[in-house]
Amino acid sequence: MKRTTLLLAALSFSTLHAEDWQPEAGFTSLFNGKDLTGWCFRAKTDRKDPKIGEVTEKHDGKTEAADAGRYIVKDGVIAVTFPNEPDKLTGQLYTVAEFPQNFILKLEFRASVNADSGVFIRKPQLQCRDYLVAGPYKDLKQYKPQEWNQMIVEVKDGVAHCTCNGEVLEAALPMPATGPIGLEGDRGVMEYRHIQIKETNPKPLP
Fold this sequence. Notes:
The chain is mainly beta. Helices cover 7% and strands 43% of the residues. The protein has helices spanning 2-12, 131-134; strands at 28-29, 39-42, 55-58, 64-66, 70-74, 77-81, 91-95, 103-111, 116-121, 125-129, 149-156, 159-164, 167-174, 181-187, 189-199. Strands 1, 4, 5, 6, 8, 11, 12, 13 and 15 form a nine-stranded antiparallel sheet that branches. Strand 12 (159-164) and strand 13 (167-174) form a beta hairpin. The radius of gyration is 16 Å and the shape is globular.
């Protein structure tokens, strides 16, 4: 109940209301803005294992999902928060779909002060945080604290080029052959919206 209240309070000051947002031309939305359809929990695997875990629980039609923490959908936003107890594992939410082909992923995020989250690309994690406070990219000039920021990830031939508001976060993050998109919560409140993906020069599946 406490975590739910925290999330709803964070969302209450959002300037975003339910809207008729549509993905850009050629892109497919991974989040319908209404519930967690298409998202799931997966079995945890060793970090060194390139394969992602199997789907353990789907969240189709749900507006809230709880794991080590909690995910709530409200007014076109997925909000993520997690407990402060140090013995709690971070929680991870993934798409059911996996993406073996080259693609461009776009999303917007907003972090509370010192929030710590992450975006999983196939399996590797790209840190998504209140960067200027929590790092690791503390020298960004275009990052907007406690406002909406855009992340773009372009995966091509086994590496990912990742930017925030046009500034490079990772120039060549190594990628496994396939996997889903995921979101993580570790500290504070993180909000995500407008999550969309486009396959680029798709290769035929084997």
